[in-house]
Amino acid sequence: MSALQVAGVVAFYMCSALVMVFVNKAVLINAPELPLVFLLLQLLIAVLLLRFSALVSRGAIEIPGFEFGTVKKLFPVVFVNIVGLVFNTLCLRGVEASFFQIARGLVLPLTIIVSSMHTRSVPSWNVILATAVVTAGFFLGVAPSSKVPLIATPSILSLTYGVLSSLFIAIHAVLIKVSLPYCNNSTIQLAWWTNAGSAVLLFPFVFLGGEASILRVMIMDPHWDGTVFLVGSLVTGFFGFLLCIAGLLSIRVTSPITHMFSSAARSVLQTVIGVTYFGDLITTNRATSIVVILGGTMLYTWIKAVESQTPSAPPRHPTSDIEANGGEKVEDEEIVWQVPEEKE
Asked: Residue 53 in contact with residue 259, Cβ under 8 Å?
């Protein structure tokens, strides 16, 4: 794959992720009472797009039929996925867009802890060091500051949502690897099961939580402009579907290190746009926190790249820089240490 094509995939991934965060935030500002309805619409749009893609792809994309045995085996990954998405949405609703990545800054440390518990292994001291750096960045960002006005200070509940979201992302990363064999090792089939299953699990809670009634009242209110909510739901549903593809492409056609740097660049742009568009407040502590979290994450990526190098093995493993190897594809099974994609 040419350098131009690689750059195009990376740009596609970054743009999709940025659109998701900021349109999500705009919708939640417009209708903060409807987080579950908003999330349900996103899931349903993703399901419809996956079904449509299967129809027009002439067999390239296969949607599995309903099998109770498969549903039972995939229930854990579906359940963890929807719980993580709910906490993720509630966190974004309660914090500024630029602070969102700080609130979920424990994704990497918790992923390493959960993965180590699952594999019953102990990470190297270098990995522990990188984890400590990221953790320090998180606590630096959430530490109380007299320079932050009360209205811009995230609540304890919002921070709790962020930590819980990070925890479920970590568990989800482990469950994905365990669940893929039940989907013929197809990420598309797993995406179908998780989106469709998550929509089914979430649907009753939209009514139990009273959001269906709230939506009906808001629709009847002549003063409420539902354009932002409706258009935002369509846009985020569409870009959520694209992000699934973009993240997979970004890992497959670039090296993990390049992919991580693109994620870091996205985080910087996310902060800049948050300050410019939403008027988010960036203090020295918050800016330093973002830099420390990104630095620790990239340090972890570099450490794992070095640790996976073996003198006698050919360069066909996760650390192979595909841009330098003429676009040779890295097999999914080999990207076992890749930092999981954060749910937007």
From this structure: no
Contacts of residue 48, defined as CB under 8 A and 6 or more positions apart, other chains included, come to none
Instruction: Give residue-wise pLDDT tens across range 283-320.
Output: 778 788 888 888 888 788 788 777 777 454 444 444 33
d(CA 53, CA 244): 13
Is the Cβ–Cβ distance between 141 and 293 less than 8 Å?
Answer: yes
pLDDT tens string 35-53:
999 999 989 998 898 888 8
Unique residue bearing structure tokens 């996925």: 81
Q: What is the pTM of this model?
A: 0.77
Which DSSP string corresponds to 155-215? PHHHHHHHHHHHHHHHHHHHHHHHHGGGGTT-HHHHHHHHHHHHHHHHHHHHHHTTHHHHH
Residues 6+ apart with CB under 8 A from 98: 270, 271, 274, 275, 278, 280, 282, 286
Where do the structural domains in the chain lie, given as residue ranges?
3-58+65-334
CA 37, 105, 189, 48: dihedral to nearest 10 degrees?
A: 30
Query: Which residues lie closer than 8 Å to 320 by C-beta, 6 or more apart?
Result: 255, 328, 330
